[in-house]
UniProtKB/TrEMBL annotation:
This is Mediator of RNA polymerase II transcription subunit 31. It comes from the Eukaryota. PANTHER family: MEDIATOR OF RNA POLYMERASE II TRANSCRIPTION SUBUNIT 31. GO terms for molecular function: transcription coregulator activity. It comes from Hyaloscypha variabilis (strain UAMH 11265 / GT02V1 / F).
Length: 127
């Protein structure tokens, strides 16, 4: 899926999450729900976060507002649709912090997050 430019991100104060899969309008053959699900799940990848930072997305106030809006994925009924809810929601939460949005440019930070993900995968889910 092609990434929109930061200028393409338009948010309004009253923006609401999309309906759970339904007969909503399609954009390029996909519903808004499907597009936002794919994007939010991509945030689980430290390398993708580094890529977005290198393109200066995290410096765009509209994109930062979009990341805040996406926090609806951390609440039912949306969480059940996430393939990797742990890293997805953790990184979405970290992206709310300006410091993290700057630090993710560092290869060391990317390596640290990657290592944490590998360890968490080896340990399995916590009870």
């Amino acid at each position: 899926m092609a990434t929109a430019s930061p200028q393409d991100i338009a948010m309004t104060e009253d923006q609401t999450p999309p309906p759970i899969p339904s007969e909503e309008p399609k954009y390029g053959g996909f519903t808004r729900f499907e597009i936002e699900l794919e994007f939010v799940q991509s945030l689980a990848s430290p390398q993708y976060l580094n890529h977005l930072a290198s393109l200066k997305y995290f410096e765009n106030p509209a994109f930062v507002a979009y990341l805040a809006y996406l926090q609806y994925w951390s609440h039912p009924p949306y969480t059940k649709y996430l393939t990797y809810p742990g890293p997805t929601l953790k990184n979405l939460e970290l992206l709310q912090q300006e410091r993290f949005r700057t630090e993710i440019l560092s290869p060391d930070k990317v390596a640290e997050l990657t290592e944490e993900g590998i360890k968490a995968g080896m340990e399995g889910p916590r009870s």
